[in-house]
C-alpha cells in the first residue's frame, strides 16, 4: 500500500511548480513587447529596400541596437513561455514532452545569445 | 497513478465555430508562427554581422516570392498577436467580460490587425527604392 500522499506527486516535477511565475512573466514580457514590436515594424517599414550600409548603420546605432537586444530577449522569452504551454497542452507522452521542452529551452538560449552577439558585433564593429 | 481513459473536454465537434473560439486558437497559431519569425530575425542579424556578401544572400531570400509570403504572413501574425494580446491584457485587468464586449473587442482586433498589416505594406512598398 502506498503511504505517500498526493502532495508528493504535486511537488518537485509535479504540477505545483512555478505556474504563477510563468503566467506573470508572460504578461510582463507581453507589455514590454508592445512598444518594442511597434518600433520594430516601423523600423523595418522605413528600411524597406535598404542596402547593406544603411541596415548596418541602423543596427550599429544605439537607437537601433538597444531596442533590438530588448526585442530579442523579451520576444524569445515570451515565445519560449508560449511554446512551452503549447507543448504541454498537446504532447502527452512524458518522455517526448520533457525532451521537447529541454530542446526548447536550449534553442531559446542559443538564439538569444546568437542574436545579441550579432548586434554587439555590428555595434562594436568587429 | 493510472488514470482512467475518460473522454476529455472540450468536445470541439459539437460546437458551432464562433468568433471567440476562432480568435482564441488564432492567437495561439499566430504566436507559434511568430517564433519562426524570431528565428528568421536572428539569422538576418547574423547575416548582417557577417558582412555584405552574406547580407546579400539574406536579402535575396527575403526578396524572393517565398520570402515576401513569409514576411506578409508574419506581419499579419504580429499585428494580430499584438492587438489580441492587448485584448487579453484588458481581460487580465478584469474588463470586457460582457458577451457584447467580447464580440466588439474581437471585431476591433480583427479590423486593427488587417488594417495595420495593409498600412505597413503600403508604406513599406512605397518606400522601396527610397534608399
Brief digest:
The complex is a heterodimer of chains A (126) and B (131). Chain A has helices spanning 7-10, 19-46, 52-60, 62-90, 94-124.
Task: Describe what this molecule looks like in 3D.
The complex is a heterodimer of chains A (126) and B (131). By secondary structure, chain A is mostly helical. Helices cover 80% and strands 0% of the residues of chain A. Chain A is elongated and about 70 Å long. Chain A starts with 6 loop residues before the first helix and ends with a helix. In chain B, helix 1 runs antiparallel to helix 2, helix 1 (19-50) crosses helix 3 and helix 3 runs antiparallel to helix 4 (99-127). Chain B has helices at residues 19-50, 52-63, 65-92, 99-127. The A-B interface holds A 9, 27, 30-31, 33-34, 37-38, 41, 44-52, 54-56, 59, 68, 72, 75-76, 79, 82-83, 86, 111, 114-115, 117-119, 121-122 and B 1, 28, 31-32, 34-35, 38-39, 41-42, 45-46, 48-49, 52, 55-56, 75, 78-79, 82, 85-86, 88-89, 92, 120, 123-125, 127-131.
Describe the secondary structure blueprint for this structure:
The complex is a heterodimer of chains A (126) and B (131).
Chain A: H1 7-10, H2 19-46, H3 52-60, H4 62-90, H5 94-124
Helix pairs in contact in A: 2-4, 3-5, 4-5
Chain B: H1 19-50, H2 52-63, H3 65-92, H4 99-127
Distance between the termini of chain B: 64 Å
CA radius of gyration of chain A = 20 Å
Poorly predicted parts of chain A: none
Instruction: Give the SSE order of chain B as H and E letters.
Output: HHHH
Helix fraction of chain B by DSSP (H/I, runs of at least 4): over 70%
Overall morphology of chain B: extended
Major β-sheet profile of chain B: none
Rounded to an integer in angstroms, the radius of gyration calculated over CA atoms of chain B is 20 Å
Uncertain runs of chain B are none
Roughly what fraction of the amino acids of chain B lie in strands?
Answer: under 5%
Amino acid at each position: 500500500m502506498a503511504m505517500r500522499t498526493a502532495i508528493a506527486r504535486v511537488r518537485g516535477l509535479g504540477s505545483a511548480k512555478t505556474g504563477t511565475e510563468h503566467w506573470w512573466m508572460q504578461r510582463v514580457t507581453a507589455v514590454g513587447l508592445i512598444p518594442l514590436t511597434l518600433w520594430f515594424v516601423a523600423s523595418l517599414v522605413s528600411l524597406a529596400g535598404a542596402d547593406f550600409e544603411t541596415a548596418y548603420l541602423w543596427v550599429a546605432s544605439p537607437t537601433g541596437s538597444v531596442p533590438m537586444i530588448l526585442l530579442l530577449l523579451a520576444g524569445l522569452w515570451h515565445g519560449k513561455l508560449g511554446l512551452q504551454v503549447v507543448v504541454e497542452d498537446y504532447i502527452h507522452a512524458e518522455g517526448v514532452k520533457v525532451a521537447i521542452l529541454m530542446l526548447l529551452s536550449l534553442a531559446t538560449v542559443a538564439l538569444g545569445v546568437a542574436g545579441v552577439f550579432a548586434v554587439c558585433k555590428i555595434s562594436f564593429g568587429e | 497513478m493510472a488514470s482512467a481513459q475518460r473522454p476529455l473536454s472540450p468536445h470541439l465537434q459539437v460546437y458551432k465555430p464562433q468568433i471567440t473560439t476562432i480568435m482564441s486558437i488564432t492567437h495561439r497559431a499566430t504566436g507559434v508562427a511568430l517564433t519562426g519569425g524570431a528565428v528568421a530575425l536572428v539569422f538576418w542579424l547574423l547575416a548582417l554581422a557577417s558582412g555584405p556578401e552574406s547580407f546579400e544572400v539574406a536579402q535575396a531570400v527575403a526578396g524572393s516570392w517565398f520570402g515576401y509570403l513569409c514576411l506578409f504572413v508574419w506581419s499579419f501574425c504580429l499585428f494580430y498577436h499584438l492587438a489580441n494580446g492587448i485584448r487579453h491584457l484588458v481581460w487580465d485587468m478584469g474588463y470586457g467580460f460582457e458577451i457584447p464586449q467580447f464580440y466588439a473587442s474581437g471585431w476591433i482586433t480583427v479590423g486593427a490587425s488587417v488594417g495595420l498589416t495593409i498600412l505597413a505594406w503600403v508604406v513599406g512598398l512605397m518606400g522601396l527604392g527610397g534608399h
